[in-house]
């Protein structure tokens, strides 16, 4: 018996062939429970290659290799469920930098103040030695004239020098 092909039968055959093509591109694998699974999508990541029974022609399973601990791949999202986002990390870094700058400024100010106290201490000690030596000391008045210190003024200057020494020479 001879079959007769017409245009409509050729169209139907072509359609049947097109429908059958996607069915051919099937994946077949065993899941973790040992059940055989079928899909047009590849098996989930972590499926061992030995458990993949069939794959579409020319397809290779893309194996997921996790990055080493502590490294972040470039395609990783900025925020993970367990860690802060990039914006939060940037904000924390900015705050830390500001704290470090403030601490450095405070340390510099303390250093400057300590140097000033040492200088004041030296001046006060030198002044007290001079006052205690009995040498005649003069001061210039408003008109620029040198006027010697009397005993009362000398005692007041000695007391002021001792107070500076007590506060600055620690």
At a glance:
This protein is mainly alpha-helical. The protein has helices at residues 7-24, 86-132, 151-168, and strands at 27-30, 36-39, 52-54, 138-140, 146-148. Among the domains are: 23-57, no CATH class; 112-170, no CATH class.
Number of strands: 5
Low-confidence stretches: none
- Helix/strand order, N-terminal first: HEEEHEEH
In what range is the share of β-strand residues? 5-15%
Question: How does the major sheet shape up?
Answer: 3 strands, antiparallel
- Described by the principal axes of the CA atoms, the overall outline is rod-shaped
Mean pLDDT over the residues: 80
User: Gap between N and C termini, in Å?
Assistant: 123 Å
C-alpha-based Rg, rounded: 46 Å
Structural class by helix and strand composition:
mainly alpha
Contiguous helical run count: 3
State the helical fraction: 40-55%
Largest beta sheet: what is the strand line-up? 2-1-3
Protein architecture, described:
Among the domains are: about 25-55, no CATH class; about 110-170, no CATH class. The protein has about 170 residues and is mainly alpha-helical. The radius of gyration is 46 Å and the shape is rod-shaped. The termini are far apart. The protein is built from three helices and five strands, in the order αβββαββα. The protein has helices spanning about 5-25, 85-130, 150-170; strands at about 25-30, 35-40, 50-55, 140, 145-150.
């Amino acid at each position: 018996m001879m079959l007769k092909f017409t245009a409509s039968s050729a169209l139907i055959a072509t359609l049947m062939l097109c429908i059958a093509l996607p069915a051919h591109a099937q994946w077949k694998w065993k899941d973790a429970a040992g059940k055989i699974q079928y899909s047009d999508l590849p098996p989930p990541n972590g499926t061992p290659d030995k458990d993949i029974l069939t794959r579409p022609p020319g397809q290779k399973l893309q194996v997921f290799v996790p990055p080493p601990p502590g490294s972040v791949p470039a395609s990783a999202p900025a925020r993970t469920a367990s860690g802060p986002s990039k914006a939060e990390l940037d904000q924390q870094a900015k705050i830390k930098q500001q704290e470090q700058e403030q601490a450095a400024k405070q340390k510099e100010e303390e250093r400057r103040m300590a140097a000033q106290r040492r200088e004041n201490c030296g001046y006060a000690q030198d002044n007290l030695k001079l006052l205690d030596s009995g040498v005649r000391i003069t001061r210039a008045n408003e008109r620029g004239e040198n006027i010697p210190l009397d005993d009362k003024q000398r005692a007041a200057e000695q007391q002021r020098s001792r107070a500076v020494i007590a506060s600055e020479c620690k």
